[in-house]
Amino acid sequence: MKRWPVVIMGLGMALAAVAGTRYDWPIPAWAPTPLVPKDNPMTPAKVALGRALFYDKRLSANQTQACAGCHLPDKSFSDGLSLAKGSTGELGKRNAMALVNVAYLPTLTWANPNITSLEQQILNPLFGEHPIEMGMAGKEQLLFERLRADPDYPRLFKQAFPAQKGEISLKTLTRAIASFERSLLSFDSPYDRYRYGGQRDAISPSAKRGEQLFFGERLECYHCHGGINFTDNQIHRMQPLGERGFHNTGLYNEDGQGAYPPGASGLREFTQKAADEGKFRTPGLRNIALTAPYMHDGSLPTLQAVVRLHYAQKGRAGQSGAGPNPLRSQFIQGFQITDEEVADLVAFLESLTDQRFIDQSVATQAVESSKRKEHAAR
Question: What are residue 235's phi and psi, to 5 degrees?
Fold first, then answer.
C-alpha cells in the first residue's frame, strides 16, 4: 500500500511527458527551482511559443523591434546602451536590465516594487506610452490579427494552450513570453564550475584573489550581491517568501540632501517615502561582464569605473561638490584599492560569464530569425 503514491506520481509524470507538458528545468542539482505562477505552469510548448514571440518584430506597432531589440542574447539579454531605445527611437528612462535568471526575481524593473510577475511586466514594453517601447497601446486587435495570419502561430498557440483551444489573446501571449523568459537560466560559468563543481582550476589565480575581495569586509560587495545570482533580490522554492533589496548607492547627490536627478528618484517614486530617494533594485551579477554600461542610467561605462569611480568613492557623488549622498546604503563607505586589486576583482566578475549559455542563446536567436525570413519570403 505504501508504494501506491509513488506509483501514481510516477504514472502522472510519465503521462505528462508523453503529452509534452512536463518541463525539465535546465539547472544543476545545487540550484533551487524557480517558482512560477500557479495559473501559468511551465511547459515546453509555451516556452517554444514564447521564444518565437520574443524574437518577432511584429509585436511592435511599426514592426521594427522585437522584445529582443532591448534584450540581446550576446549581451546576456541586455542591450549595450545607456538607456533603452524604443521602436520609434524614443529613449527610455532606464538602462535595459539583463534577463538572465529573471525567473528568480521577486520584483521586476529597476524601482517598481509592485510589478511582481513577468506576465505583468511584459505589458509595460508592449503598451507603455511614456516612453514608447513597442508602441502597441490601443492596437491589441492589430497584434492578434498579425499573429492569426501567420502560418505557424495558430498551431503553436494550440499546442501551448490546449485548454484555451489555442486562443490568441493578451493572456496567452504574455504567459508564453513569460515562460520563455523564465527558461533563460545560466549556471555554467567558470566560477560555478570552480565553486560548485569542484574544478579548482576553472578560474584564474587573479579571479580567486578577486573572490576574496568580493566576499571580504573591506569592499563589502557581497552584502547586496549575495546568493546564487549575486543579488539580494531572489525568490525560489527554497526561499518562497523572497528577499527584496533596493539601495541608494550614492550615485548622485544633487542638493547636498541626497536628491537624485528629476525623474530618477527610484523607489521613492512608488512609495512616496523620502527615505527611499535614490533606491534601485540590486541587479544580479551573472554575465555582468557582458552587460555594460552599468547602473540604472548606464552612466558608468566599465566594471573598472564602477569599482574605482563609484564604490571606492563612497558613491560617485562623493567626488562631487555636494559630497557623498547622506541617504546612501550603510555599506557604501568607500575604500582604498590598488590597480592590481581592481584587476583581480574584475577577473572574478568576468569569471561569472556563462559562455555556453550565451552561445546557445545566440544560436537560438539565429534559428528564430531564419524562420521569420522564410515566412516573409513566402
Answer: -150, 135
User: Contact at 8 Å (CB) between 95 and 297?
Assistant: yes
Coil, helix or strand at residue 242: strand
Residue 54: its H or E element: helix 44-54
User: Which three three-digit cell numbers place residue 335?
Assistant: 575604500
Report which secondary-structure segment, H or E, holds 11.
helix 4-19
In tens, the pLDDT along 10-68 reads 433 444 444 457 899 999 999 999 999 999 999 999 999 999 999 999 999 999 999 99
- The letter for the amino acid at 239 is Q
Q: Which three cell numbers stand for residue 165?
A: 483551444
Query: What's the length of the chain?
Result: 378
Are 44-186+355-377 and 190-351 equal in CATH topology? yes
C-alpha cell at 179: 515562460
Cell of 239: 526561499
- The beta-strand segments (E) located in 42-130 are none
375 annotated as belonging to a binding site for a ligand: no
Domain ranges in the chain are: 44-186+355-377, 190-351
According to the annotation, is 296 in a ligand binding site? Answer: no
**Paired residues of 129 in beta bridges:** 132
CATH for the stretch 190-351: 1.10.760.10
CATH-assigned architecture of domain 44-186+355-377: Orthogonal Bundle (1.10)
Q: Which three cell numbers stand for residue 235?
A: 525568490
Q: Which residue has the cell 493572456?
A: 171
Question: What per-residue string of b and e applies to 100-138 under the rule 16 or more CB within 10 Å gives b?
Answer: bbbbbbbbbbbbbbebbbbbebbeebbbbeebbbbbbee
Q: Is the pTM of this model over 0.90?
A: yes
- Does 236 carry a binding-site annotation? no
pLDDT in tens, 157-200: 999 999 999 999 999 999 999 999 999 999 999 999 999 999 99
Count of beta carbons in the 10 Å neighbourhood of residue 255: 9
Q: Cβ contacts of residue 40 below 8 Å, gap of 6+? A: 46, 119, 175, 178, 179
CB 214, CB 222: distance < 8 Å: yes
Burial class (CB in 10 A: 0-12, 13-18, 19+), 208: middle
**What pairs with residue 243 in β-bridges?**
234
Contact criterion met (CB below 8 Å) for 332 and 250: yes
